[in-house]
Amino acid sequence: MQFKRKRTLLSLVIALAALLALGFAMYLRAKAPPEAARLLPECDAMVYLQLKPLRAATHFDATPVPRSAYFQQFIDATGIVPERDLDEVALAMHRVPTPPPHKHGDPVAEIYTSEVFVGRFDGQRLAKYLASTASAHESYAGVDIYTVPVDGETVRVAQLGYDIIAISNMPQAEQIHSMVDRSRASGLSSPGASLLATHYQDVPQLPLPAQAWGIGHIGLPFSQNGYINVMGLQLPLPEDTDLVASLRYSGSVHLRVEEMTPNEDAAQHTVETLTALLNFLRGLGSEQLQAHPTHDPAAVAMHDILASTTLTQHGKRAELNATATSEQLKALSAAHNPTASETSAPADASKH
User: Fold this and answer.
1) Residue 279 — left, alpha, or beta (φ > 0 → left; ψ -120 to 50 → alpha)?
2) CB 168 within 8 A of CB 114
3) Beta-carbon neighbour count of residue 90 at 10 Å?
4) Would you write out the chain's pLDDT as a tens digit for each of its 352 residues?
5) What is the residue-wise DSSP string for 197-255?
6) Which one of 29, 38, 286, 311 is most buried, counting C-beta atoms within 10 A?
7) Interacting residues of 36 by C-beta distance below 8 A, sequence separation 6+
8) Residue ranges per structural domain of the chain
9) 62 near 220, Cβ under 8 Å?
């Protein structure tokens, strides 16, 4: 009888240890970055977008999209309709210095990208299309990598799984090889690129995970003369500033941008400079509303969004927060596209 009790106790201990190990593994997976982001190679910046809840909330897949002849040929051959079939997109940006066009010209750089797409694909149709259009083919670690010429660029494409595609337009194959290697490693043992491992903890996860976020020198696509330019407005931030930006939808769209500065004085300078710029924009918005007593919906929306924007300092970090309702976003969208038809407000994406 005593032997039976010992064996029962041992079985319970083993079962409890197994449950604890399973729970710990699930906890680590929940805290880990999305797989699409973990597969990205080393880079200067990365952006992640979760399309599935956005599609459920806005039904953007029902809106006709103009396409080039080349892209339509790709869709017809593979059956992949991006706005319908893509669920996640992760994009890495690589800054590659190049010689200046003139002997005494300013330094320049090319921006290349590597992407991971997660969704629903017909692997056989995709492979058949790639094989028919590729200028070269390589087998690496058991994965077929196709080199496809697109608009004068060399684009390498690999299907990493039944629902995952990797693409890179870097001149060398190192980045696509890295994504293949990461896809073969265990998810929990591969934290991803150093940028992701360092800063993913700064991406907001509560009360809801951010549906879109970016890490690193995310001003790269908007850099001009060493500074970040957005819609013709030069921000007082160098192009190599480390930023963590996130968008979260929970009835309204919440934007948060954090700048990582070398010291507290730099963070204070950013907050003071951007606050002055924000106040200037608020003043312009108020003047526009006064000049149009009928209250242009787009002007009202922009005024309210700017009014909700806050700038704060947290030690060595400068943080910007802004909120916009779906109605405000629709008003701004209608101002840029007057022919757009009215659509109903999106449902809460957190319910999907």
Assistant:
1) alpha
2) yes
3) 26
4) 555 555 666 666 666 666 555 554 444 444 578 999 999 999 999 999 998 877 877 777 777 788 888 888 889 999 999 889 999 999 999 988 777 766 666 666 788 999 999 999 999 999 999 999 999 999 999 999 999 998 888 899 999 998 999 999 999 999 999 999 999 886 555 678 999 998 998 898 877 788 999 999 877 776 766 667 766 667 777 767 789 999 988 778 899 999 988 899 989 988 998 899 899 888 887 877 777 656 678 888 888 999 999 999 999 999 999 999 888 888 877 766 555 444 444 444 444 4
5) HHHGGGS--SSS--SEEEEESTTGGGEETTEEEETTEEEEEETT-EEEEEEEESSEEEE
6) 38
7) 48, 88, 89, 90, 116, 117, 118, 164
8) 32-211, 250-352
9) no
Q: Residue 251 is encoded by which pair of tokens? A: 């009835």
Helix, strand, coil shares of the chain, percent, nearest 5, are 40, 30, 30
Judge contact between 101 and 140, C-beta under 8 A: no
Residue with the two structure tokens 């929306």? 301
**Spatial contact of 44 and 50, defined as CB atoms under 8 Å apart:** no
What single-letter amino acid sits at 226? Answer: G
Q: What is the pTM of this model?
A: 0.80
DSSP 97: E
State the Cα–Cα distance between residues 312 and 94, nearest whole angstrom. 30
Identity at 232, one-letter amino acid code: G
Read out DSSP for 178-202?
A: HHHHHHHS-TTT---SHHHHHHGGG
